[in-house]
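Example record

Each entry pairs one chain with its bound ligand, flavin-adenine dinucleotide.
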Amino acid sequence: MQNDPRSHGLWELTAPPASETHALAGSVEADVVVVGGGFTGFSAALHLAERGSRVVLLEGKEIGFGGSGRNVGLVNAGMWTMPDELPGVLGQLYGDRLLDLLGNAPKLVFELVEKHAINCEINPAGTLHCAVGRSGLEELETRAEQWARRGAPVTLLDAAETARRVGTDAYAGALLDMRAGTIQPLAYVRGLAKAAIAAGVQVHTASPVVGAERTGKRWTVKTDRGSVSADWVIVATNAYTVAPWAEVRAELVHLPYFNFATKPLSPELQRKILPGREGAWDTAEILSSFRFDKLGRLVFGSVGALRGTGAAIHKAWARRSLKKLFPEIDGVEFEAEWYGMIGMTVDNLPRFHRLAENVIGFSGYNGRGIAPGTVFGKVLARHIAGEIVEGDLPLPVTEPMAQSFRPIREGYYEVGAQLAHLVQARI
Ligand SMILES: Cc1cc2nc3c(=O)[nH]c(=O)nc-3n(C[C@H](O)[C@H](O)[C@H](O)COP(=O)(O)OP(=O)(O)OC[C@H]3O[C@@H](n4cnc5c(N)ncnc54)[C@H](O)[C@@H]3O)c2cc1C
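Structure tokens for the complex follow.
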């Protein structure tokens, strides 16, 4: 993708090809124009087209170019925030509504994959949130109790059971969440795009939106070579926003995150490491994540950008850490490496914005975007179709709030991750 092996890495190597699309040229009429071709944009477009709307989707680069084609592929339920904290931040009504929606969001992903026969290595085997030390275990005990009280199928595993499921005794325990699973993310977003096109959505790639104008009751959204006139605009550009809705990007601090994929491991190693094929990550402050792909490549990631000095530092760290976690993986060889930018909000919660009359979007998923992006896209479609009134949306309307010292904080994350990985060889 974009001739850069460090943008979409393994996912680009193994995803089915994207549907053929072209840049927008000339003027087009629609009911809704969706800007951004990731999980949010394609889910919104698909669900709108299924409700009879004429939809045009404009993507600046390629399908899945942003976070949707670069992530780890953990289809998680809920946010980072502890369940009981949400009502405190959002109020009881929105807190409960968001928890309910996001707790069930993986189900929508699994249903869409089945309904549209999307070939994306889906595996609803659950996820393991692994405890680093006593404090990590205490955090998971709290999380387990709060989710269990809400009826979620989560189980706190002791150290012995965690070691059996993960294949290392590095962890003090783990939280098994059976609502969750893993996916090949670029294959999933390409599959959503294919389903949207089949439902009648007109998709244009290499078509960055450069401006938008209100003409009477309609919007005219412009690219370099064309324009779309529509009643509604969905802004689904999130952490990869390029103008004109720059305020969506200004609200987010970019946290870089990388992944390395090994060559397929031997059948013996695959029986020892994550034999149940759950997706896994840990409670460390600079967290690590690991999961298998369909062919038995272990995908191992953490915070950092694979550019400049970071490329060598993070690779050396990944080798050392994998060896420490799983000493049996001797002389690990990586087949792919890539990274992307996670959009973080100040309180780790997503946002719903009305950027102008009939210009709406969700953003700020804080590294939890596969299931939330899918479900928020459907919510946008239902709202525009008149099935959900604004007061019943899962989040209140808020103004985008630019984060202060954003470039400094982004630099701090990137350099801080390098320093941490220089000195640390995991646990
Ligand atoms: C490295 C990494 C690991 C992650 N791991 C996970 C994980 O394991 N599980 C999980 O749930 N989430 C994860 N996430 C988060 C998740 O990937 C994102 O939250 C999600 O992809 C956001 O989807 P989206 O559709 O809202 O935005 P995106 O996928 O970022 O799509 C936005 C699109 O808008 C386009 N665009 C921008 N400006 C314009 C414009 N002016 N005109 C036209 N198009 C434009 C961009 O090119 C881009 O394709 C991870 C993210 C990263 C980066």
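The first strand starts at residue 26 and ends at 29.
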